[in-house]
């Protein structure tokens, strides 16, 4: 019964969107592919959802950049469900948009729908997250952060900070959700850089699930079982912020007694950095809109683009954070 | 001796002691409790402090399960309560004003009770199966929490609010004091007054209770509303502990931990009987397990497997049937044997 009702609603919704699309694309003569006749490029973007402040900033930036670049954006929110995203991509194919971009909710299961796009001669750009398709011709390029590089940047700062010191540096690590790409890669990149010098020792490493509450809980336990901690490396700002509370509760000064490195640079993290509670943040920027629009234009013109484009990202020290904070978008 | 062995809290207590003993070997200073910054500080304090929200949620869950129901929505109520309180406080002109914080906390708790009563209405008023009725709020509630926080993490900077989950009073974590008060009240209401009996009666057989003159609907409504209230307080603690509300992650899967705590504590899922002290022990066992994993440094990739192993062992030890098979293969209680034979004869 429920199935039948939801099918009915779905049918209604599809009919509505179809009607909407035919009336809007009617003006442009319904020409296939090209879209060059009225000069305006049409992009279909299928977003993951709105699960975090990071994602919301990502969405906003893409919408604003599209407007600035004169690209008509068709936007859909998949609410973290792959089937919604596949549905959205199929509807973009039917609407004959010029280019499709999306952040895949999960890595696998995209071959069929990407083939459909290829058959319809619509180029696809991946943003922020990759797919595991063997056939890399299914998409033109992948634009997103390089998590390994982020880990390396964090490690490099640490190595530079302690280059004159001969003592052991005891590091504790708060990992992201076990098995997630950012957690694995940020750990690996960091490890690569610091393993060059044996004085850097990771004495404890646990998952804090990318959340403040878990970050605090795990850090409390670290503080009790390890009497001497010099550095905390957290895979995102939120876990770092939770850990700061734990450190303060233990009567130590975050940023001084224990140096803190995090990744992301969300607003609360930047604030803590400017306040001197965090020492260094590696940015993982959601603001890839401008790059995405440039790539989209090139791809539609048929120009060659690299298979992998890394988001333009930077790092922040405490002084840089104070300067950058007033202009941060997220 | 055999009376102690047969006490239903004996085995949960043994498990808790065993877990703590594990730390004695693997972690230095695990049992050291110091004074730091004017409050108690140590791993044991951490266990009760971080365990406090789970104990609260489990208390509510115990009563619901005693009516042979279940409440899957507690995790969402946790998120909603924290989100609403933080939203109200972040809107205050002075975030440190006690009145404003009390107002926000009161509002969040009222909403939690309403949400609990909504579950109760679906179960008792309409007659939907509890697991389905509360599943609705479990799914929808997280959306509601995100709606309240606008999908962002709402950060507040309020010292009165901070007290609830992260503060100390008389050197003790304030959360523990809240738990002690709620526990004492619940124990008084259910064990000194008739309420506990009514709950068990409804759990045993709702229809028979109604015919005996008990307002089964009223009891169910009360119990679900109470469960909502407990989850609401837990939600305030969790969000206050980190001074922020995270609609996505606050209280995620806490319903499963709570059900586990109730079951470890010896309350059967079939209802009709419950043990508050058992539930508290169960929740403490779960939190001790979590803290132990962090302290002895089980690698994150194997954490879940380690937990699963411990929980399996705990559940097996808890089961009288399993114990009878393993420990007393030849020494069955004499009284039980004729009864068992009787049953066989009847069924044959």
TrEMBL record, chain B:
Instruction: Kindly list the places in or outside the cell where this protein is found, as annotated in its UniProt entry.
Output: Cell membrane
Q: What is its main location?
A: membrane
Q: Which residue windows are transmembrane per the record?
A: 9-27, 47-65, 72-91, 97-118, 130-148, 168-189, 219-238, 250-269, 276-298, 304-322
Q: Which UniProt keywords apply?
A: Cell membrane, Membrane, Transmembrane, Transmembrane helix
The answer to whether UniProt assigns keyword Metal-binding to this entry is no
Membrane-topology descriptor: Multi-pass membrane protein
Q: Which InterPro entries match?
A: ABC_transp_permease
Q: Does the keyword Hydrolase apply?
A: no
Q: Which Pfam families match?
A: BPD_transp_2
- The source's superkingdom equals Bacteria
What PANTHER family does this protein map onto?
ABC TRANSPORTER PERMEASE PROTEIN YPHD-RELATED-RELATED, GALACTOFURANOSE TRANSPORTER PERMEASE PROTEIN YTFT
Query: What's this protein's name?
Result: Sugar ABC transporter permease
Naturally occurring in which organism (per UniProt): Microbispora siamensis
């Amino acid at each position: 019964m429920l199935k039948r009702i939801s099918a009915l609603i779905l049918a209604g919704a599809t009919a509505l969107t179809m009607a909407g699309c035919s009336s809007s694309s009617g003006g442009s003569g319904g020409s296939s592919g090209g879209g060059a006749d009225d000069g305006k490029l049409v992009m279909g973007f299928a977003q993951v959802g709105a699960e975090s402040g990071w994602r919301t900033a990502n969405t906003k930036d893409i919408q604003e950049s599209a407007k600035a670049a004169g690209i008509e954006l068709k936007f859909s929110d998949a609410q973290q469900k792959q089937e919604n995203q596949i549905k959205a991509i199929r509807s973009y194919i039917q609407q004959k948009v010029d280019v499709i971009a999306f952040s895949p909710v999960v890595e696998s299961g995209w071959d069929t729908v990407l083939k459909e796009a290829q058959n319809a001669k619509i180029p696809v750009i991946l943003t922020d997250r990759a797919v595991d398709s063997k056939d890399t011709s299914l998409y033109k390029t992948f634009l997103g952060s390089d998590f390994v590089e982020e880990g390396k940047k964090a490690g490099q700062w640490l190595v530079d900070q302690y280059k004159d010191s001969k003592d052991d540096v005891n590091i504790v690590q708060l990992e992201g959700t076990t098995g997630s790409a950012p957690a694995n890669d940020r750990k690996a990149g960091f490890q690569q850089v610091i393993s060059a010098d044996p004085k850097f020792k990771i004495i404890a490493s646990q998952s804090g699930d990318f959340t403040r509450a878990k970050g605090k809980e795990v850090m409390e336990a670290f503080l009790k079982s390890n009497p001497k901690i010099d550095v905390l490396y957290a895979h995102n700002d939120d876990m770092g912020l939770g850990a700061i509370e734990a450190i303060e509760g233990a009567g130590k000064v975050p940023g001084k007694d224990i140096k803190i490195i995090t990744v992301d640079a969300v607003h609360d993290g930047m604030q803590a950095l400017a306040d001197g509670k965090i020492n260094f943040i590696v940015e993982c920027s959601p603001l890839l809109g401008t790059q995405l629009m440039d790539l989209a234009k090139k791809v539609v013109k048929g120009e060659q683009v690299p298979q992998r484009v890394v988001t333009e990202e930077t790092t922040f020290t405490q002084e840089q954070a104070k300067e950058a904070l007033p202009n941060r978008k997220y | 001796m055999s009376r102690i062995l047969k006490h239903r809290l004996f085995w949960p207590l043994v498990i808790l002691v065993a877990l703590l003993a594990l730390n004695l070997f693997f972690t230095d200073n695990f049992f050291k409790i110091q004074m730091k910054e004017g409050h108690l500080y140590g791993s044991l304090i951490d266990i009760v402090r971080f365990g406090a929200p789970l104990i609260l949620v489990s208390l509510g869950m115990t009563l619901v399960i005693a009516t042979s129901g279940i409440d899957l929505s507690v995790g969402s109520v946790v998120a909603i309560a924290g989100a609403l309180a933080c939203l109200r406080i972040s809107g205050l002109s002075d975030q440190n004003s006690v009145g404003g914080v009390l107002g926000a906390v009161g509002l969040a708790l009222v909403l939690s009770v309403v949400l609990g009563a909504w579950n109760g209405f679906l179960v008792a008023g309409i007659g939907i199966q509890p697991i389905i009725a509360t599943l609705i709020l479990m799914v929808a509630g997280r959306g509601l929490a995100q709606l309240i926080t606008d999908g962002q993490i709402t950060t507040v900077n309020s010292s009165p609010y901070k007290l609830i989950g992260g503060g100390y009073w008389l050197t003790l974590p304030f959360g523990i004091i809240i738990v002690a008060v709620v526990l004492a009240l619940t124990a008084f209401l259910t064990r000194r007054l008739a309420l506990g009996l009514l709950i068990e009666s409804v759990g045993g057989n709702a229809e028979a209770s109604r015919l005996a003159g008990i307002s089964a609907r009223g009891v169910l409504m009360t119990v679900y509303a109470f469960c909502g209230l407990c989850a609401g307080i837990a939600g305030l603690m969790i969000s206050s502990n980190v001074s922020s509300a995270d609609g996505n992650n606050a209280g995620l899967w806490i319903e499963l931990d709570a059900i586990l705590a109730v079951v470890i504590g010896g309350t059967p899922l079939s209802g009709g009987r419950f043990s508050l002290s058992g539930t508290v022990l169960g929740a403490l066992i779960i939190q001790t397990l979590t803290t132990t994993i962090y302290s002895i440094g089980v690698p994150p990739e194997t954490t879940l497997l380690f937990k699963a192993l411990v929980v399996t062992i705990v559940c097996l030890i808890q089961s009288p049937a399993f114990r009878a098979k393993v420990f007393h293969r030849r020494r069955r209680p004499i009284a039980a044997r004729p009864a068992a034979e009787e049953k066989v004869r009847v069924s044959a």
